[in-house]
Amino acid sequence: MASRRLALNLAQGLRGRSGGLSVPVRRGLATPHSPALKTQTTTLKNGLTVATQYSPYAQTSTVGMWIDAGSRAETDETNGTAHFLEHLAFKGTSKRTQQQLELEIENMGAHLNAYTSRENTVYFARALNEDVPQCVDILQDILQNSKLEESAIERERDVILRESEEVEKQLEEVVFDHLHATAYQQQPLGRTILGPRENIRDITRTELTNYIKNNYTADRMVLVGAGGVPHEQLVEMADKYFAGLPSKSPESAAYLLSKKKADFIGSDVRIRDDTIPTANIAIAVEGVSWNDPDYFTALVTQAIVGNYDKALGNAPHQGSKLSGIVHKNDLATSYMSFSTSYSDTGLWGIYMVTDNLANVDDLVHFSLREWTRLCGSVTPAEVERAKAQLKASILLSLDGTSAVAEDIGRQIVNTGRRMSPGEIERVIDAITEKDVMEFANKKIWDQDIAISAVGSIEGLFDYARIRADMSRNF
To answer: Which residues form the Peptidase M16 C-terminal domain (predicted)?
Structure first.
């Protein structure tokens, strides 16, 4: 199951049915141009939001429920519950056994899946338009009537423990989990999505049912449709299947804590393991939330720092100044700049992997020197390059109904509205080098940093030395 931070790519193959037009369609003269696709929203009496982007010529649709609840809505004792529930969703309901559920999906040629993040849980289905009502029925069934049988819980417990072992072998996942843990110490955002192994072993049916009762409420859920499902039709289905959802979450201690502003803490965590042939290092400052006015400026600034991968054929020409320095001096195998946003905070930084262990300090130094350069010396050319890359990345990511549904659900759950691609383009186009430098001065210059490092990291300087690089005036 797609259940990790990097598992938001939903474009998996649909088992299709043969079909199509037997006679080619010819475009005649003066046929009307179809209007721009718009996102429509309706809120039901109980507070459930229904949002759609209807494409009249689409033959397939993606429908799903985006829920404003993830690992951040848990406590230390129940950490891992949201992800555990995702696994149990397809193991049978009071109306359908697991076998019936799987056969029903298989017979439609549909695709059903779920994933969990720190702030959201998502259940979605992709199918032919005529099968959308059946998919919505299945979604409401697994969301409201899952049996959560003890035998299924025990089976999935072993599956999740094995998944946890696999995740621990993925160094990027490990580094980013530790980055969150140190940047948001003793806070809900600092917990992992899977939860600690002792929690996975001990989670009970009571904790699972309590999580549903406390978080699967209409005011925190958005039913999304993208493709060939008309808005009115999905609203009718929502009214039929989800009208009985509780309208408001109980204000439990866990709920109140999850809505408390997260405090970013300058700190570091280091796990030295010389059997790992590389140094894997993430450095971040406090970034921006989904609703922050600087959200897109942060993305443009991230794109200026850019990405680098030595294995690519265009490695010497990847555009950013930092990638040129890194390649010329063979400082890294790869690096990736990132801007991760949450409801009230974010992480803006860089993740680096290098096997040049004698020059780890140089890699970190030149990376942070590039950060401080952004505070006072940004050229119009590199801003335009970054803006072009960002717009292309956003628009290319909206290819397919699942990607559109993901964009709608994520934006409405996190910000309350969906910005259209055209609106996003206009906002990005308006960003100037002055905006980038103002952002850098506010968020980067002389700011505390969080560091997470794993592997052969003997050459990584101490925190104070690295922190001093955040205000180098050159």
So the answer is: 202-390
- Which of 172, 110, 104, 101 is closest to 143 using CA atoms? 101
Catalytic residue among 74, 86, 163, 406: 86
Residues 283-325 have pLDDT tens digits of 999 999 999 999 999 999 999 999 999 988 776 776 789 999 9
Q: Are residues 173 and 291 in the same domain?
A: no
Token pair of 313, please? 């054929």
CATH of the domain at 239: 3.30.830.10
How many domains is the chain partitioned into structurally? 2
CA distance linking residue 114 with residue 146, whole number of Å: 14
In b/e form, how buried is each residue of 74-96, taking b as 16+ CB within 10 angstroms?
beeebbbbbbbbbbbbbbbbeeb
Q: What is the pLDDT of residue 36?
A: 61
Comparing CA positions, the residue from 151, 437, 122, 468 lying closest to residue 297 is: 437
Cβ neighbours around 160 below 10 Å, total: 23
Does the pTM surpass 0.85? The reply is yes
Query: Is 286 one of the annotated active-site residues of the chain?
Result: no
Asked if residue 30 is part of any domain, the answer here is: no
Q: Residue 81, SS3?
A: helix
Q: Which residues, at least 6 apart from 67, have a Cβ–Cβ distance to it below 8 Å? A: 120, 121, 122, 123, 215, 216, 220, 221, 222, 413
Query: What is the pLDDT at residue 418?
Result: 94
| Residue 103: CB atoms within 10 Å | 12
